[in-house]
Specification:
The complex is a heterodimer of chains A (about 325) and B (about 325). Chain A has 12 helices and 12 strands. Chain A has about 325 residues and is α/β, with parallel strands linked by helices. Chain A has a single domain, classed as Rossmann fold. In chain A, the strands form 2 sheets. Chain A has an 8-stranded mixed sheet, sandwiched between helices. A 4-stranded antiparallel sheet of chain A has the order 2-1-4-5. Chain B is an alpha/beta fold. Chain B has a single domain, classed as P-loop containing nucleotide triphosphate hydrolases (Rossmann fold, 3-Layer(aba) Sandwich), CATH 3.40.50. Chain B is about 30% helix and about 20% strand. Chain B has 11 helices and 12 strands. In chain B, the strands form 2 sheets. An 8-stranded mixed sheet of chain B has the order 6-7-8-3-9-10-12-11, sandwiched between helices. In chain B, strand 4 and strand 5 form a beta hairpin. The chains are: A alpha/beta (about 325), B alpha/beta (about 325).
């Protein structure tokens, strides 16, 4: 990777849940000391199950929710040190696409108003005609024609609304888009269209993507590198091919093995579910390694010491947080 | 064991803008002991087909054609007969287990009720049966969990509980509608193992409705692909995945990103294959083949009348004028 545009260091996000009367104070650690770099034009896939903190991580990086500790270094400056005023011009480069495209668009605003809204904020010098031309250009780029400009979101299908969401995110030509389950609500044939659109836009504009998804197939397809989150912590991070060819964290292996491939012979041969139970509550994570309660390789040290994220492959691009990553071949989990 | 035969089955919903036919002329034989996968995108009619058969549709819905379970005709059977068949002969499991569970009753009570209602067991026997079944579907520490309420169960355990509830009626057919779609992938793997076990050990006849071809691939014996209310292709699972004949089946398989292959991010592939456009509005279906506007093979002949579902050898049927024999 060339010099990163984004360096996240030890980022921690906690939610103070309302204290129950006479109850103990309850703090949920949603993101727990996450570090990674992202290069220009790169796609980093972020995978994890519900409660892994993947959406919180994406939002905290954009400062849509506050982080408690750590750094979010964007082009050399730590976003956490900036006030909202200083943040505003940077937002031009930092955009997001949400899962539910219809909910993300204002139902009372025309498509033109929604798509052009970022222009009004960040390029106030543009005339209305220029804004319409710009909005029309981006709509055309995402595969909708000009007639969409004066219509309302409810007149469009889910896939079309997601195209509108992508046009809105792209109109300022940002350097980073956080895609938060951006294709998860779409049918397979529409999902493929949006996945291709994102890949093409990245090739044309060099935009970097943080592609957050529970869908490992889509993540594998699109991502240059993949980060696996478990209970808010990085279990493993590495180049897509290395992570799939040699998953070093037992959770990564379990996750990959759990996805049934669309191939009857391979799907029937899929080993029985390696993991029992469900992820523990982030309110009360296990001591030491967060994964140890479900891990087939767990030993004593896993309960007492939190495993550091360490290099497991050539160089320092493939990292895993597991005391027993060297023993990965001893058990098939 | 009984087989089920659907013939010319049609479901028409009453909507504010008039009647809307969402299932059209579906013909299908479900063999005893087989697992049939039913795939299609939203609006394809794959769920409404079964909801219509079982009378679980909004008032005003018209169900036409025939659905015979053994000697019993379900279409037009009336709510009392259908209520007796639901759960006892055909049970259904849904995507969101909370819709199937009563939040006010303990899991044990809800399960026992099924046994009492369908098999006339007394309370103690029903409770024992409920406990055995919870254990059977893999709920750890079932004896204690019997007295918990649904909100005290995790998502995966709730889905196991609704499967247990479905099985307690000792149905001849289990229809599972997107049963793992709301679950995390590691929990999905556990539930798929449970379905595989039911198939292997209990020889239970199952219909597995899913938008996820991977879920269907490992469990189904045969797969039916639905588009705009019709079955467009039905074939043995290996044949369908290896050599899909209908252009829509081909498009659907090709459009799936693959967990088992490198993708564009790893320079292993180009863009995904796509099906242009989007599924039609059921109220405004094109004349002829509903897939024709998106189909790479379509010509004028395709826009005259909908193609019939015709045999193409080896247990395969395809509804397409242009599909080439394998």
């Amino acid at each position: 990777m060339s010099r990163p545009i984004l360096s996240v260091r030890d980022l921690t996000v906690r939610f103070d849940l309302r204290r129950r009367l006479f109850g103990p104070e309850r703090v949920l650690t949603a993101v727990d000391g996450v570090s990674f770099d992202l290069g220009a034009g790169e796609t980093l896939g972020i995978v994890g199950e519900s409660g892994s903190g993947k959406s919180t991580l994406g939002r905290a990086i954009l400062r849509l929710i506050p982080a408690e500790a750590g750094q979010i270094v964007w082009l050399g400056q730590d976003l956490r040190q900036l006030g909202e005023r200083a943040m505003r011009p940077l937002r031009r480069d930092l955009q997001i696409v949400f899962q539910d495209p219809l909910a993300a668009l204002d139902p009372r605003a025309t498509v033109f108003q929604s798509v052009a809204e970022p222009l009004a904020t960040h390029r106030p010098g543009l005339s209305r005609a220029q804004m319409r031309a710009e909005a029309g250009r981006w709509l055309a780029r995402v595969g909708l024609d000009d007639s969409a400009l004066d219509r309302y979101p409810h007149e469009f299908s889910g896939g079309q609304c997601q195209r509108i969401g992508v046009a809105r995110a792209m109109i300022l030509e940002p350097r980073l888009i956080v895609c938060d389950e951006a294709v998860s609500a779409l049918d397979v044939s529409i999902q493929a269209q949006i996945v291709n659109l994102l890949a093409e836009l990245q090739r044309e504009t060099g935009v970097a993507l943080l592609f957050i998804s529970h869908n490992l197939s889509v993540v594998r397809h699109l991502s240059h590198r993949i980060l696996v989150l478990y209970l808010g912590r990085v279990a493993e991070i590495g180049p897509g091919e290395a992570l799939f060819a040699d998953p070093c964290h037992p959770y990564t292996r379990a996750l990959l093995a759990a996805v049934p491939p669309p191939d009857p012979v391979a799907a029937r041969a899929r080993p029985r579910a390696g993991l029992k139970g469900e992820p523990p509550s982030p309110l009360n994570p296990p001591s030491g390694c967060a994964f140890r309660t479900r891990c087939p390789l767990a030993i004593e040290v896993c309960a007492t010491r939190r495993p550091p994220l360490e290099a497991v492959g050539n160089g320092s691009v493939h990292l895993a947080a597991c005391h027993r990553w060297r023993d990965r071949s001893t058990q098939g989990a | 064991m009984t087989s089920m035969v659907l013939d010319g089955l049609t479901v028409t919903l009453a909507t504010l803008s008039g009647p809307r036919t969402v299932v059209r002329q579906v013909g299908l034989t479900l063999q005893a002991g087989e697992t049939l996968g039913l795939v299609g995108e939203s609006g394809s009619g794959k769920s409404l087909l079964w909801l219509g058969v079982l009378g679980l549709v909004p008032p005003g819905t018209v169900v036409g054609g025939s659905a015979r379970l053994g000697d019993t005709e379900l279409v037009g059977a009336g709510e009392r007969r259908l209520a007796d068949i639901r759960g006892r002969r055909i049970a259904m499991v849904f995507q969101d287990p909370m819709t199937a569970l009563n939040p006010y009753l303990t899991i044990g009570r809800q399960l026992a009720e099924v046994v009492e209602r369908h098999h006339g067991a007394d309370r103690a026997a029903a409770r024992r049966a409920a406990l055995e079944m919870l254990d059977r579907v893999g709920i750890p520490d079932a004896a204690r969990r019997l007295d918990l309420h649904p909100h005290e169960f995790s998502g995966g355990m709730r889905q196991r509980a609704t499967i247990a509830m479905a099985l307690l009626g000792r149905p001849e057919i289990l229809v599972a509608d997107e049963p793992t779609t709301a679950l995390d992938v590691t929990v999905q793997a556990q539930i798929l193992d449970l379905f595989a076990e039911l198939k292997r050990e209990a020889r239970l006849t199952q219909v597995l409705i899913s938008h996820d071809l991977g879920v269907v691939a490992g469990l189904a014996d045969r797969v039916a692909v639905m588009y705009a209310g019709r079955i467009v292709e039905i074939a043995g699972v290996d044949d369908l995945f290896a050599r899909p004949l209908h252009p829509y089946s081909q498009g659907l398989l090709a459009a799936m990103p693959r967990v088992d292959r490198p993708g564009i991010g790893q320079d292993g592939a180009g863009l995904l294959a796509t099906i242009p456009g989007q599924p039609p509005d059921p109220a405004r279906l094109p004349p002829g083949c509903a897939f024709a506007p998106r189909c790479p093979l379509a010509d004028d002949g395709c826009t005259q009348a909908p193609p019939p579902l015709q045999g193409r050898g080896a247990g395969r049927q395809v509804a397409c004028y242009k599909a080439v024999a394998p």
